[in-house]
Design goal:
Two copies of one chain form a homodimer.
Chain A lengths: L1 E7 L3 E6 L4 H8 L17 E6 L2 E3 L6 H5 L2 E3 L3 E3 L3 E4 L27 H4 L8 E7 L11 H12 L11 H13 L3 E7 L9 E7 L7 E7 L3 E8 L4 E9 L9 H8 L4 H22 L8 E8 L1 H8 L4 H4 L13 E2 L12 E4 L9 H9 L9 E5 L3 E7 L4 E7 L19 E7 L6 E5 L7 E2 L1 H13 L18 E4 L2 E7 L10 E4 H24 L9 E5 H6 L2 H6 L11 E5 L1 H11 L1 H13 E3 L6 H10 L11 H7 L1
Parallel strand pairs in A: 1-7, 11-14, 14-16, 17-26, 19-28, 20-22, 26-27
Antiparallel strand pairs in A: 1-2, 3-5, 3-7, 4-6, 8-9, 9-10, 11-12, 12-13, 15-16, 17-18, 18-19, 20-21, 23-24, 24-25
Helix pairs in contact in A: 6-7, 7-8, 10-15, 10-16, 12-17, 15-16
């Protein structure tokens, strides 16, 4: 259920989900409200007047007096009706109310993804078939397996005879048949192609057709997640996630590769990720009536290093020029063979990778959004330590990886942190008082800055001219929050008294340099890749942002700092965890699954390291938003 | 090289291999020569006169006098030129030379099998492909496996991309490629069908195309044998065989099934047969330049119980009515997974079985002789403890197993033994003196009677009217060798002084009863099977005898006792170890190999146990040769 919230005097109306926090709604709408404590309710600054409608609110440290006047703390209020809100005028130090600049709504409403990802059928790669067989007699004493085949043919006349190759299945078949009184359920795996026969991967006693589950797994370098799908209905019935337990051996793929080269390193890493997947399976099944043995298929995707490590393949050559993975098309594997707690017959499918730094997660994402089925030219972006970019349509695709560095994941940023509780995720600066409005994840006191917060902060500082286009602080501004600190010039986002860590949380010029390098690498990547196929940004019909991080990026601000190209906003789509989405779609619809082969075959990799064009583009990108302002007309207008 | 040998006064000429023993040549030609000692040279009875030509001979205990006259001991002479031999006239006790009955040559010359088994190409299911790959560069850094695929496509344009699924192969690929300087040999396994892609099962450093070997294995209940074939030339390069080490757990399949039901029984049996195969591999490779790791494919056949035990499948239900095997089409298996000492990627193919007692050895044999490709109606026979029979042509086939009992393998016969050194394998009786001519395997003193000897003895005793058609001795003949012994009436084949075991070797009426049951079951089997499809013996175009035992059966004598139908002798073929032959053909020619699917699909099993028609036919067969003499016209003539 949705509600509209009108903010005055900015005269901005946004539509938000029922139950949304009012401070978060304001921040995402670009409405500035004083908020120093990140939403913890302690600073008592974010007072707003509820003119119409009602919020559920706690008084917190608000005076009874204010409460009775209809004032509420925005950070303590949740939206439960259409609202009209007035934000009190901010006073300057001289006590004069400031006239606000008129603002346009900066929130990009979630565009319908239907056209992008399409629909899919509930027609999974695994199916079940219940058979009641005639018991053998002296006149009819064919082998048990032949009897099963005959049952299959009777049930599905005209279809090819299924294959079977699991020794355990044959070994147990006679007992299963006799103990179940010749009433059994076949678990069948569809063939690779449409014309290939099914494969019997399990024979279960009795009628178990109502129990058919599949697991989609996204194997991230940092986080792994799993989604359990009822393959009879196509419904998601449970989800779980957790840190990739490999993390103890290093945060990024490079440190994992280095660890893999040690004595038992490769085995350790393989065991850790399997352990992580097992924990997810346990978590998912814990509160359900199903057991891990009920999972009939696993569809997984991960980057190239994660995929190699899961299969126990040495990732050594991925790190050494010319950066060659062992294999790009991973064979269908028995999950139990890897140590995963699943029925011995259950297969694990791992999305193929393209290159050492463009992995199965990208292929899965590109597959999910059907780029390979469209005439429209799309730019697919996954931003992270290793940013991946794919450009193309149903006729051709090129991809590249650019090493953006860890800034967006908190690395190289003085108070950088991952997107977890306490991280500043949204930020506004008052254009005249230079006071901050900060919103943290979990709405507690801030403890650091995550990637989306960083983009907010830098774009706001740039627009308010607190920093210039080179990422240097305006030394002429006299403000207590702008100062020459321990590591050079910096802006104080939160004073120690308002922060969770008890010290001032700042952003420094060094942080700004690192951010520029990260976003510059991405932008130079787009340019190089487009140039390689003779296109420019004007030729793009769509920009598709994948990845969990992508889902939280404020489009206008990302364009403002030069992380995303300055294009028609209607061309942008947020796909979220596209890798997981691809796995879910493939798990549910075998026809969609089979299309993936085309995706993998279409994509050609372009190596950016040591690419001279990339280096030229990169140097030109180390500016906010770019040295060539003609590339960013809307930002040029905004800054002038 | 062949030589002709003319025997006088019988006026019989035979053609034999150079180096053949003269006594053996005479015995197989049906020329009676006194020979009590089996060919050991001690009885000194088998004197013959060499009229023309020359033999290599030892004097043995022949008098110098006789030697100088040109007499030689037949058993001590080998044939090295065309010969004319005169056998001295046998004297009766009255001293009068006997007039011999004119005899016809009874030897069936080895009929050319070319029309039966056809020709085959050297185009094995596994091939090798040498590739010199371009090393990767930054501009071309596809995965190692994709580079291999590209090399394959360049070498074999237009062919489908091969598949791969062996994890170890992918794991080792990067190292193999780099250590071999990107020069590798692919070991490829052809797809099941003609339109299915090859599968890469190994990648070897350097050019190993000249080393491509396959192993054909016949897994017998008693004996296992292996033949190593150079798959580049199609030549057999080495053979070995040995007792199936399961034999310690019982001689026949039933006792093996019983043992399998014990605690670790099934595992023990599986390990023993694998041990046997490993010993054969070791034996074969011992004196060759190749190592077991050079074997690229294994093609095996065995009866249904042997096949189940090799794969570790419980044979329990094979023994219990309605006699159902677990599986008839065995999946392609990795040999190493069973414990066989082979390269981990090497596949073992096991011929499919038809029913619990008609196994892969029969399918392999039927496959070898191309019954499924001919319009001619053939009767395929494999005689043993479990006799298997197949009737049909390219349009239809029926099969049956009949439990003949162990008589042909020495079981239930007082002095029965397997066909090994010292076993009487050929026998003639003097029609008037009733003295024996015995030839043993290895030409040493006799120690027992093997299957082919038994058939010789019974047919000779019958023709000489020493026994009647009910298998009873003629009580009216007064002869020291025909007597009422410990176990009833018997004929003394060898006196204790002439035997290896120091006691009289006899054949008893109990033995004759057991033989009649064995041959009666076979004959009743032919009749029941033919009747089931509305045919009679007249409709048969060919009778094909498989099995090692079949190769040693004297056709006339086998017909004489009623083991084989009384038909035009030109319709009979001896195929020898047809099971091994099928494996060898399939190993060498993938197109022949692929035809096997049709063989398996064509054959329908008929269960003879508890079949009332079979029982009726069986009872009528318990006679020599049969109660219905119209079925045996040639024998009727001979006996009258």
């Amino acid at each position: 259920m949705k509600h509209s919230v009108e903010f005055q005097p900015d005269n901005i109306t946004v539509t938000v989900d029922k139950g949304e926090n009012l401070l978060v709604a304001a921040a995402s709408a670009g409405v500035y409200i004083d908020a120093f404590c990140g939403g913890d309710g302690v600073c008592g600054k974010c007072k707003v007047h509820v003119e119409q409608g009602e919020v559920y609110s706690e008084r917190g440290n608000l005076k009874q007096d204010d409460w009775d006047k209809g004032l509420r703390l925005a950070c303590q209020s949740t939206i439960h009706s259409d609202l009209k809100i007035t934000v009190p005028e901010k006073m300057t130090s001289s006590g004069k109310a400031l006239k606000r600049k008129p603002k346009t709504t900066r929130t990009i409403s979630a565009r319908s993804l239907d056209t992008l990802i399409g629909t899919w059928e509930v027609d999974p790669p695994v199916t079940k078939l219940y058979l009641e067989l005639e018991p053998p007699t002296l006149e009819d004493n064919v082998s048990d397996m032949l009897r099963v085949m005959r049952g299959f043919k009777n049930a599905r006349p005209g279809e090819q005879e299924p294959s079977y190759d699991h020794p355990e299945l044959i070994r147990e078949l006679p007992t299963v048949l006799r103990e179940s009184d010749w009433k059994i359920t076949l678990l069948l795996l569809h063939g690779k192609g449409q014309n290939e026969p099914d494969r019997i991967i399990d024979v279960e006693p009795g009628d178990t057709t109502s129990r058919l589950y599949g697991l989609a797994v996204d194997i991230g370098t940092t986080t792994c997640s799993g989604v359990l799908i009822d393959l009879n209905s196509g419904q998601v019935i449970s989800e779980a996630s957790g840190y990739n337990a490999q993390i103890r051996y290093g945060e990024d793929v490079i440190s994992r590769i280095i660890y893999a080269a040690r004595g038992s390193g490769l085995r350790d890493l393989q065991e850790r990720v399997v352990h992580t997947i097992n924990a997810i399976i346990e978590d998912i099944c814990k509160n359900m009536i199903i057991s891990p043995a009920d999972i009939s298929y696993i569809m997984a995707a991960g980057n190239t290093v994660m995929s190699h490590l899961l299969l126990g393949l040495d990732p050594k050559y991925i790190r050494e020029a010319p950066y060659v993975p062992s294999v790009s098309q991973f064979p269908l594997t028995k999950a139990a063979g890897l140590g995963i707690h699943a029925h011995p017959s259950v297969r694990l499918f791992l999305y193929p990778c393209i290159a050492s730094y463009v992995g199965g997660d990208i292929v899965s994402g590109v597959h999910a959004c059907q780029m390979a089925k469209s005439e429209k030219v799309s730019l697919f972006i996954d931003i992270g330590t290793n940013g991946e970019i794919v450009v193309g349509n149903g006729d051709w695709m090129v991809c590249a990886a650019c090493s953006a560095g860890p800034a967006f994941e908190g690395g190289g940023i003085k108070y950088g942190m991952r997107a977890s509780s306490g991280a500043i995720e949204n930020f506004h600066i008052h254009p005249e008082t230079y006071d901050p409005m900060i919103v943290t994840i979990g709405r507690i006191k801030p403890s650091g800055i995550c990637g989306s917060g960083l983009i907010s902060i830098v774009s706001e500082l740039l627009e308010a001219k607190v920093i210039d286009q080179q990422g240097k602080f305006n030394r002429n501004l006299e403000h207590s929050r702008i100062r020459d600190g321990q590591d050079g010039w910096e802006y104080v986002l939160a004073w120690g008294q308002d922060s969770l860590i008890g010290e001032d949380i700042v952003i420094t010029e060094v942080d700004l340099d690192n951010l520029m390098r990260a976003k510059g690498a991405m932008y130079a990547g787009y340019q190089t890749l487009l140039g390689s196929v003779g296109l420019s940004f004007d030729d793009l019909d769509r920009v598709i942002m994948a990845g969990n991080f992508g889902a939280f990026i404020d489009l206008e601000r990302a364009i403002c700092i030069g992380l995303l190209p300055d294009m028609d906003r209607d061309k942008f789509y947020y796909l979220g965890n596209a890798s997981m989405l691809g796995c879910q779609i493939s798990l549910t619809d075998v026809n969609r699954f089979r299309e993936r082969v085309k995706v993998r075959q279409l994509i050609t990799n372009l190596e950016l390291s040591e690419n001279p064009e990339f280096m030229t583009y990169y140097m030109a990108s180390l500016f906010l938003p770019h040295t060539d302002m003609s590339l960013f007309p809307s930002v040029k207008d905004k800054l002038s």
